[in-house]
Amino acid sequence: MMRKILNRLVLVLLTGLAAAGCATLPDTDALIARHSAQEANFETARGPVSAKRNAAILAALKRKSGDLDLLDKQMALEQAISDSPLILGNKVSLLQDGAATYAAMFGAIRQAKDHINLETYIIEDDATGQEFSDLLMQAQARGVQVNLIYDSVGGINTPKTFFERLSKVGIAVLEFNPINPLTAKGPWQINNRDHRKLLIADGRSVILGGINISNVYASGSLLKRAPKPPSDDLAWRDTDLQIEGPVVAEFQKLFLQTWEKQHGPALAAKAYFPKLAPQGKDIVRAIGSTPDDPYSLIYLTLISAIGNAEKFIHLTNAYFVPDPQLLKALGDAAARGVQVQLILPSESDSELVFHAGRAHYAELLAGGVQIYERQGALLHAKTAVIDGVWSTVGSTNLDWRSFLDNDEVNAVVLGREFATQMQAMHQQDLDASQRIEPEAWASRSFKFKLKEWLAQHWGRLL
Fold this sequence. Notes:
462 residues; alpha/beta; Endonuclease, Chain A; 18-stranded mixed sheet; two-stranded parallel ribbon
């Protein structure tokens, strides 16, 4: 936990140094109005489907979803703003917590035959990190090319010898935006961090979400219930996805774009884009965001989905430092009768972020938004499910840093079947959460009110 606290402090200090030239969030109303006039199109592994099949797929989706307008509007917007298409024929598996995610990752590494592309914010030199490094070196030894991107701030406490050990056996290691300006291969962009978590095996499967490589994720959280254990014993509650199918190529493109942008060494010639066959029935879009984009695609997508919601919005997020447009979108949804539920941490590895988020509770509660705080675990998940048909899982927090300063990646999954799994997971977290009641919140101690007042002034930097 101290590692995460240090990372946050470093980011706050470095962001303060770079704040004079920082970007601003876009006018979401104007962008959504501009990009919502076209029809959504679907693709398979072979390319775009015919107009007739396109209409049939959309009709079937709407029929299964209760003819929600969300689908028409949301898919049109995502298509207009994103280079990544909406792709059919994928198999999406929901992975709750580190134990399930690491088992899937270890299996993918062991089964890889051509290459492994790994991108992560944090990789610790602990038992979990050592297990990863051993498996990666074993893969490299059997002829599988391993390419690793890690963030310089995220890896601030990981000794250089850890990465040198990987490099010596042929693994290509790339440090994202080094803190040390003397080692930067381009402009010193200290405020731009790589917060993505991706593991791509053979260009055929991808694992992504909120889980870094660290011992803190190693134990599950589902059995942790009140009474709350001491903070140091809290398991970390997080969510990842494993996806097989044609959409994996879109995540592969994002990894390779980052490698090129960071001036990584020439990659070994491998089959990074194999021919991909359908693996399931899930419809998926890969969405990546970087500070180089005109605006955060993930941010605009989420604001639009909230604005198009008709029944419910269920968000679970680790770091909640909302901007005015996100606050307004949530309040407007609640005002028009949509059930808006936020599951947020009851404890955090960043006290500043924790209290900065809580500073907005009174406004949200007054507007009809339901707020719950997860007990018995340190919440680190970043998920959303809207109207039982639109779901997203990824690395993106609901804070300014994710929307403006970080490289992030999310998967959007359409369909009621997967959304049902997301809803079941949401309910599990809800059952382990305590609801924040307006009356009780208003009577909280002066100490907390003071911390919130102080923390909210740092919101843009967190």
